[in-house]
Design brief:
By secondary structure, this protein is mainly alpha-helical. Helices cover 51% and strands 5% of the residues. The chain has 8 helices and 2 strands, in the order H-H-H-E-E-H-H-H-H-H. It is elongated, with a radius of gyration of 18 Å.
């Protein structure tokens, strides 16, 4: 299974903010640190804020901060939210549905594998993901404050 770019970025933003301490990086700083387009980062940050996983404040003294809910969020829940609950394969096929659709065993097997994937991530929290050695490494990739 391959994660969507937005899912990957959401997890990395949460992890980055989990090690930020009292610093509140801006969306631009986080985008630059992660070498992703600002517009993509802004969309992900907006969704994470909507989910209550981070706070975003504008203006002087503003920036991004992880909420307690964000620190304790299940990685599995975050991945499910960004990935959606659709099937791994599109058996309906748009205009041409798969001819095996009525008697296919693969679809069910892939669904079970997908659920096992999510279930393996459920017990992990964002806080768990930044334990040593990851947390210090994340701090090392931060380029520090810069102008917007």
């Amino acid at each position: 299974m391959r994660l969507l770019r937005s899912t990957d970025l959401a997890l990395r933003v949460l992890m980055r903010l989990a090690v930020a301490g009292d610093a509140n990086p801006t969306t631009r700083q986080v985008a630059a640190d992660m070498d992703v387009p600002y517009t993509h980062a802004a969309k992900v940050v907006a969704e994470l804020q909507h989910l209550g996983l981070l706070d975003a404040r504008r203006g002087r003294g503003g920036g991004l901060a992880l909420t307690e809910r964000g620190r304790t969020a299940s990685v599995g829940t975050v991945v499910r939210t960004f990935e959606g609950d659709g099937d791994v394969v599109d058996c309906e096929g748009g205009t041409t549905p798969c001819p095996l659709n009525a008697a296919c065993r693969l679809r069910g097997a892939l669904r079970r594998a997908q659920e096992a994937f999510f279930a393996s991530l459920d017990p992990l929290t964002v806080g768990d993901m930044v334990a040593e050695p990851t947390g210090p490494l994340l701090l090392g990739i931060s380029r520090g404050p810069r102008g917007d």
